[in-house]
Write a structure and sequence with these properties.
The complex is a heterodimer of chains A (about 475) and B (about 100). With about 475 residues, chain A is of the alpha/beta class. Chain A contains 16 helices and 11 strands. Chain A has a single domain, classed as Amidase signature (AS) enzymes. Chain A has an 11-stranded mixed sheet with strand order 1-3-2-4-6-5-10-11-9-7-8, with helices on both faces. In chain A, helix 5 packs parallel to helix 6. Chain B has a domain of about 40 residues. Chain B is built from 3 helices and 2 strands. Chain B has a two-stranded antiparallel sheet with strand order 1-2. By secondary structure, chain B is mostly helical. The chains are: A alpha/beta (about 475), B mainly alpha (about 100). At the A-B interface, helix 9, helix 10, helix 11, helix 12 and helix 13 of A face helix 1 and helix 2 of B.
Chain lengths: ~475, ~100
């Protein structure tokens, strides 16, 4: 079997036609993933016992003639900021190098209940802070399309695993673009659903008002299927939404005629020429399919980076306070006093980017600065949300680039935090507004680097977003051709 | 420079972070660059909006509450399994109370 090009439907057909059992697929997928991992470092560790146990249960269900679930036997990778009971969860940090969670995230439990087989945990920037995956304490991930380049971040391992074909689908997390940007860089589909659409229970908190769990897949349909499985109200997360979960795959028929699309002029300013051309071509495809395209304005865009890096770091400084050497495995230099023990543990345990963000977050919340920074940022966030609300009076969806440029070289931006932050400009706005947004492959540069198009829709209107992405995919083609050949 | 090295050390103290070697100087330069960019926010006219703390949706007042049914807790053993130092059902830390 050709594992690297499997889809959810392909797994299901093979399983039900008895061409392979779930156990055979799991064994082969684990072998393939371990063998390929040296090329990318996408996985931090594998969970063979759990995978094989889950696969055996699927085989038993099939043997009894029961429905094994919508994700039966599908090999899944999970970003290592999402907790898995009994399977190490490091968050890409030295501080949690040995942490074994006592419970499962709701999204993980739902994936497995639907038959999904979790192969292992994927690499990421430490505590999901970064745009290149270079902030992992366990080494960077290489982009499977171009090994001298970053896969994007922070969910770089999940994007790389799906692009490389070592997982059919994966879970990532997105706070300011951490699913969409790596999806764009690796040539796969990445979805950030509406805030609250997927329970955050078991997602290690970075910035609670911005954190999302969402799927990666090679096809839009597979991403839609996974979202359908993990979405919905969860009593363990009081911010999870009660809105009913529609069948996202039901309306993927390629018909997008009459949909009104907005192209924000503020998003077309600083693109590299090739990215701009590919996005324009993608927009043209949708126009040919009968969409009505008009230019719109999102005037508060210029303030988004500043607003995001205040709110996200403020929340992070509070959320990361718990890693103090008392409860989570790593403690360094006992010290004379409790305070010294805290300081030693955190000083030695956190990497440079985490320290920068904890410091910035603490600073903007500290006495005398709260109103000027944090309160101001919350007001600007309201302006950004209002921009989108106004735009959605006129249009059904917004189409935009994901990143101003394709995947950059390893080491290229790591010494310039401001430049790294500025590259998040097009993804941060949707995160602040809490609307659904995704990246779908839109073509490749002359060098063969993938470029994703971003599609953003109204709160809880993931259906329209998937319909447009699916229509584009039918013309542009699935994922990245070169990756698939190599896989 | 918007932030002094003394302020960096004060904030590190508030953050419970021990800084070593050239870290304070490096953080000062980094934070300064970021804070300069953040100054952009002063240009935004926010007189017409309320601060937005959370993405909110229409929902009943009790929508965030689960049914009041007892469920089994995690249990002491599982909750403490990751503690670096423990004893007698407690987390062990350096002494905090002087005799």
């Amino acid at each position: 079997m050709d594992i690297a090009s499997l889809t959810i439907d392909g797994v299901r057909e093979g399983l039900l036609a008895r061409r392979f059992s779930a156990s055979e697929l799991a064994t082969e997928a684990l072998r393939f993933a371990e063998e390929e991992n040296g090329r990318t470092n996408a996985y931090l560790h594998f969970s063979p016992e759990r995978a094989l146990e889950r696969a055996r249960r699927v085989d038993e269900q099939v043997a009894r003639g029961e429905d094994p679930g919508p994700l039966a036997a599908v090999p899944v990778a999970v970003k290592d900021v999402i907790v898995t009971k009994g399977v190490r969860t490091t968050c890409g940090s030295k501080l949690l190098a040995h942490y074994v969670p006592p419970y499962d995230a709701t999204a993980v439990a739902r994936l497995e209940r639907a038959g999904g087989v979790i192969l292992g945990k994927t690499n990421c920037d430490e505590f999901a802070m970064g745009s290149s995956n270079e902030n992992s304490a366990f080494g960077p991930v290489r982009n499977p399309v171009a090994p001298d380049r970053v896969p994007g971040g922070s969910s770089g391992g999940s994007a790389a695993a799906v692009a490389q074909g070592t997982a059919v689908v994966a879970l990532g997390s997105d706070t300011g673009g951490s699913i969409r940007q790596p999806a764009s860089f690796c040539g796969v589909v990445g979805v950030t659903p509406t805030y609250g659409r997927v329970s955050r229970y078991g997602l290690t908190a970075f910035a609670s008002s911005l954190d999302h769990i969402g799927p990666f897949a090679r096809t839009v349909k597979d991403a839609a299927t996974v979202l359908g499985v993990i979405a919905g109200r969860d009593v363990c997360d009081s911010t999870s939404a009660a809105a009913p979960v529609p069948d996202y795959t039901a309306s993927l028929d390629g018909n997008v005629k009459g949909l009104k699309l907005g192209l924000p002029r503020e998003y077309l300013k600083e693109l590299t020429s090739e990215t701009g051309e590919l996005i324009a071509r993608g927009v043209e495809v949708l126009r040919q399919l009968g969409c009505e395209v008009r230019e719109i304005s999102l005037p508060a865009t210029d303030y988004a980076i500043a607003c995001y890096y205040i709110i996200a770091t403020a929340e992070a400084s509070s959320n990361l306070a718990r890693y103090d050497g008392v409860r989570y495995t790593v403690r360094s230099g006992d010290g004379e006093t409790l305070a010294e023990m805290y300081r030693n543990t955190r000083g030695e345990g956190f990497g440079a980017e985490c320290k920068r963000r904890i410091m910035l977050g603490t600073y903007v919340l500290s006495a005398g600065y709260y109103d000027a920074y944090y309160l101001k940022a919350q007001k600007v966030r309201a302006l950004i949300a209002r921009d989108f609300a106004d735009a959605f009076q006129e249009v059904d969806a917004i189409v935009a680039p994901v990143s101003p440029f394709p995947a950059f070289k390893l080491g290229e931006k790591i010494d310039d935090p401001v430049a790294m932050y500025l590259s998040d400009i097009y993804t941060i706005t949707g995160s602040l507004a809490g609307i659904p947004c995704m990246s779908v492959p839109c073509g490749e540069t002359a060098e063969g680097l993938p470029v994703g198009m971003q599609i953003l829709t109204r709160h809880f209107d993931e259906t329209t977003m998937f319909r447009l992405a699916d229509a584009l995919e039918r013309t542009v083609g699935v994922g990245n051709a070169r990756t698939r050949q190599r896989g | 420079m918007k932030i002094t090295e003394e302020e960096v050390r004060y904030v590190a103290d508030l953050s419970n972070l021990k800084l070593t070697g050239g870290e304070a100087a490096r953080l000062r330069a980094d934070l300064n660059g970021i804070l300069e960019h953040i100054d952009k926010l002063n240009e935004a006219d926010t007189s017409s909006v309320q601060p937005m703390a959370q993405v909110l949706f229409e929902a009943e007042e009790t929508a965030t509450l689960r049914a009041d049914i007892p469920v089994a807790p995690l249990g002491n053993e599982a909750a403490m399994a990751n503690a670096p130092r423990r004893g007698a059902g407690y987390f062990k830390v350096p002494k905090v109370i002087e005799r």
